[in-house]
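Known limitations

Files may contain more than one protein. Parsers should not assume a single record per file. Below, a two-record file is shown to illustrate correct handling: read the sequence, read the token line, then continue until end of file.
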Amino acid sequence: MDPGKEIAVELLPLIRTYKDGRIERLFGSDDFVPPSLDPATGVTSEDVLIDSATNLSARLFLPDLTSLGPSQKLPVVLYYHAGGFCSQSAFSAVYHNFVSSLVVEARVIAVSVDYRLAPEHPLPGAYEDAARALQWVASHAEGPGPVPWLAERGEFSRVFLAGDSAGANIAHNMAMRAEAKIEGLVLIHPYFWGSDRMGCEKDRVDKPFLEAEMLDRLWPFAWGSAVESDDPQINPMAEGAPSLAGLGCGRVLVVTAERDVLRDRGRAYCKALRASGWRGVVELLETEGEDHVFHLLNPGCDKALEMMARLADFFRE
């Protein structure tokens, strides 16, 4: 058989690799859009190179400032995209549009991080990039920094970390090791997992967007080697994991979806966080009748708009 056609690994709906080394990313990795000024909303986006050694980049979003005072500052949200550590991009149409909408609704500055992807750059590459991006943002608090308007307009006492799916996993891990001040954490359909099935992970009659068997294989694929499925980075509730009392922020919003196979992990995370001795406030928002990342697949539906409104409220509170 032609090795160019022979599949080595298939993790639907994210990625397919072939025995000749070819990689086929299946979910939102070929619809890149350039930064722009959106005349309808007034949102300006700009791409920046954070680290030339690793080609770490980000897309910055600034809302329309015409209604703001000349010295008014805005909260800063670092956003980490989904894609199982191996797919998607901060520059894809779906994330450009989602983060731009968030900036409009919440009146925040957003830094959407384009971290390195597996399998070319296995974990912990994405975690290293995420930490480097947070360090880069924090550097603007002390002076003009690499992007003067970010230093001028960013309120660095109000920095948030946010992400969906694998991006939410990254955001959690950054909050556990954060050296910079973080006010809040938003985890949308977070990718947490473990060796033991819980709740809706078992005996599904319906076919969810993500399947448990695929998620079992995704974590070691992202590392490029055998790795424990109860590693605290993927299972923060595992026995022996660092206490969630050390989470480096004061507010957390966890968003789950009723039909998502990851739903019960998100619920368990909230419960464990409350029981850990952590002194912050955690809120769980669950969307009925929806599956994983429905807000990206159908951003104009009523439930996606309701979720967006709640995210905006969290950043404004």
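...continuing to the second record:
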Amino acid sequence: MASLLNSASSLQLSSNYGAFNSQRNQRLAVNPSSTSVYMRRLVVRAAETDTDKVGAKVPDKAPADKGSSFNQILGIKGAKQETDKWKIRVQLMKPVTWPPLVWGVVCGAAASGNFHWTPEDVAKSVVCMLMSGPCLTGYTQTINDWYDREIDAINEPYRPIPSGAVSENEVITQIWVLLLAGLGLAGLLDVWAGHDFPVIFYLAVGGSLLSYIYSAPPLKLKQNGWIGNFALGASYISLPWWAGQALFGTLTPDIIVLTLLYSIAGLGIAIVNDFKSVEGDRKMGLQSLPVAFGSETAKWICVGAIDITQISVAGYLLGSGKPLYALALLGLIAPQVFFQFKYFLKDPVKYDVKYQASAQPFLILGLLVTALATSS
């Protein structure tokens, strides 16, 4: 199944890249016999062509003078322009997105009630984190950047793919290597855990398929703000939790339901990233929530999804006879609300990174509180 999926993916990648380059070349074409209007365009386009010839790949919007090396290696906006291919490869994998997946594995291990601080259990958890974070999340981010290259050419033209800093073959190779490495580690973990049914491998296959249809046509789940963001939230909260719990214990139906509900908070987190892409999403016909409802309404949908979900989980814990855990979770919601008003609700584009850095640690601590509550 994975082989068929990725064969189709590779063909689609090559086809789309050819079409993308064809359109780019058409924009650079000049006609010396044009009218004066076209002569003015000729000057601009000839300058672009000359720039290409000398190898300058940085578009006008690129933050070349103010870019940060730290932002570059994390894969976030404000990145320094880089020529080192290995740094560019890491940038495509967006390491800044790995911690929630790594933490999800920790939560799943805690929820199992069977994790012990032995060298073997620590080694198993580290391998599961490598599978979930650098490998499969890196695969997800790389393939998403590939299919978003035309949108990024509008919103963030200095990113590696639209700027031409990385080639078609390099992107496709990276997608394959990360995917196969992630699936290989998943199979290894099933053998290591002594599973009769390879549950972690199938979770990895399912997550990889979800990542593909999230970014790639014809389904391209991210075209719909509700479905796409929930899929993203489930990938960041539910899947690594399930993998960690299956590695050390048994994945039960009640945990599956609870984590899927918790993924509504992940939907809210995903919306945060949509505000900076409104211009490109609108031009490309993507119905992100800020495009569909407007920024003001989308801001409140975002914080509502995050806060109401956590309050509901706290209510569930209280109803389950675990008032201390419920109180701890409510205590972790309060600073999130504070930072929402201080940063996000004021300006979701200007303060998106600052808001996430300030508020999300409290959300992921709340996940651990919930995991510990379910294990007791």
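Parsers that stop after the first record will miss the second one. For reference, the second record is described as follows. The chain is about 75% helix and 0% strand.
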